[in-house]
Amino acid sequence: MIAINTNRSLPRQRLENSARAGFPPLLRPSIWLYLTKKELPRVDKLYERIDKSSIVYKQIMKDVRRTPPYQFFNGPGKEALETVLVAFSVFDEKVGYTQGMNFIASFLLRVLIGYDDSTAKYVEASLRNYKVASQQAFSILAYIVHDLKWREMYYDYTPKLFELTVQLDDKISKHLPKLFERLQESGLNTSMVFTEALMTCFCSKAPFEFAKRIFDMFLLRGESLVLSIILKLLRLNEAHILRIESQHELFNFLRSELFNHTYKHYPEIIQEIVNDDCS
Q1: SS3 letters for the chain?
Q2: Which of 10, 154, 230, 237 has the fewest beta carbons closer than 10 A?
Q3: pLDDT at residue 10 is higher than 90
Q4: Stretch 99-128: mean pLDDT, rounded?
Q5: Is the model's pLDDT at 71 over the cut of 90?
Q6: What is the mean pLDDT of residues 225-248?
């Protein structure tokens, strides 16, 4: 990993310009850590405080076992993911652990360790590197939840999710009225199809390389980028979506295939999609 001098302030505009083009792969982990630097407790010390008979701990263990990619989370990768999620549940007891966090933590660990999604392989790392990555992933997760105001996404009744889906409905009805009408005719709404994508910051839905590009800008811009990306994906795929006749197929496309379809058919405009300008 190439280090960035965190004692030196980098111009915001320079970071944003770099994020729009995509941070250089070798520099990406260091830049993310620069953007999210926080003074936090050590994850191993937080982990020691968990009650292993608690419901939270048991849920984390269950979700760690079923978090993809499964080949990564065998051995040290599994332990690293467990450490991040347990540490955060102790660090922020009000939020604790909610399903969806496992996808974010999994994504962060893969980026920090050097996982190659195209070959389903990762750079061989020592146990120490996994421990370092656990601390770093915990720090970035804490930044997302607290500094980017994602905390309310994980409260009971998910007030942030409700707020975002209401805003998204309003934007779709205003900018894509035909698509909005099609959704209403099919009995679908944004909460039904985008809940998982929003709660996982797209980590569970976007292809790995696409998700990296999203996070480059998300760590700078936060939730304003989230709505912009969904709206742009819908606009780009509107003609295709309007041709889908079956409600079941429409639901599956919007919920599970939208990001992959876009990345496959429109790879050349990913930079435009992650640009945070939303009209």
Answers
A1: CCCCCCCCCCCHHHHHHHHHHCCCCCCHHHHHHHHCCCCCCCHHHHHCCCCCCCHHHHHHHHHHHCCCCCCCCCCHHHHHHHHHHHHHHHHCCCCCCCCCHHHHHHHHHHHHHCEECCCCEECCCCHHHHHHHHHHHHHHHHHHHHHCCCHHHCCCCCHHHHHHHHHHHHHHHHHCHHHHHHHHHCCCCHHHHHHHHHHCCCCCCCCHHHHHHHHHHHHHHCHHHHHHHHHHHHHHCHHHHHHCCCHHHHHHHHHHHHHHHHHHHCHHHHHHHHCCCCC
A2: 10
A3: no
A4: 79
A5: no
A6: 94
Q: Please report which confidence band the pLDDT of residue 120 belongs to, taking 50, 70 and 90 as the band edges.
A: low
**99 dihedral zone (left: phi>0; alpha: psi -120 to 50; beta):** beta
Q: Which residues contact 254 (CB under 8 A, 6 or more apart)?
A: 188, 193, 194, 241
